[in-house]
Amino acid sequence: MGKDQTVLFHSTIFGPIHSRRLGVSLGINLMPDDGKVCSFDCLYCEAGFNAQGKGSTGLPLREQVRTQLEAKLKEMHSNGDSLDVITFSGNGEPTLHPDFPHIIEDTLALRDNFYPDAKVSVLTNSTMIFKPEVAEALKKADNNILKLDSAIESTMRLIDRPNSPGFTVDRVVEGLRQFQGTGIIQTMILRGTHDGKSVDNTTDEEIKALIEAYKRIRPREVMIYSLDRSTPEEKLIKVEKEELTAIGKRIEEETGIPVQVN
Questions:
Q1: Contacts 24+ apart (CB under 8 A), 14-23
Q2: In the predicted model, is pLDDT for residue 6 greater than 90?
């Protein structure tokens, strides 16, 4: 089951890369550069399962992040390189970093200095939105991209495998309402099997539940996508663009919320 699938990012600042969702993106990895730290253990995570361990390097310090980001932005700017977005992602959940709120402030200041038109995006699994300081930091980002893969408890637990038993669909949907009109809800659409169990959030029941959740949350946008690279659970199947587009159209028609399909 994807034994060779391990950490993808071996540095704190990586790229720039071309993101199919975000454009020319410079990445920030706030997790170890030789392991993974996450509050989910998603079947589809490109960085592999949490069982690989957290490595030995630890989390980068706030000052290291700021210094390395400044050096990279300075280099890119002097070379005349373009930049659309600075994206927090990497080897786990960025909001787990104890200095995440301060790092967001540093990043916004550096962005304003070197690339004022670039956006700052955060890809988060929504597990830390209940901490006020994390929520406030997320609200400062231009693109606060919050995960909700299923609005049915059993499916969410099967796909995302949260570490905390206290993390439930009802609780996270209620928590996500604080980002009404500003947050972007990102949903991975997929099907397949895991340990003999069916994995499928494309069914009518699943889409109906997601639509009701989106209506409660009222984000500024919904982003749906499917698999793009190899996954640690190898028995997952990519949902093709035509089907994704149909799902996106249904969501948009029933909620009135713009849907981006990738």
A1: 14/90, 16/76, 16/81, 16/83, 19/85, 19/87, 20/228, 20/262, 21/223, 21/225, 21/260, 21/262, 22/84, 22/85, 22/87, 22/119, 22/121, 22/143, 23/84, 23/85
A2: no
Give tens-digit pLDDT for 12-21: 999 998 876 6
Tell me the C-alpha distance between 237 and 200, whole Å.
Answer: 9
> With contact defined as beta carbons under 8 Å apart, do 156 and 150 qualify?
yes
Integer Cα distance of 226 and 158 in angstroms? 16
CA 206, 262, 88, 10: dihedral to nearest 10 degrees? 110
Residue 70 token pair: 């400044």
Q: Are 24 and 47 in contact (CB under 8 A)?
A: no
Statement: residue 29 has pLDDT above 90: yes
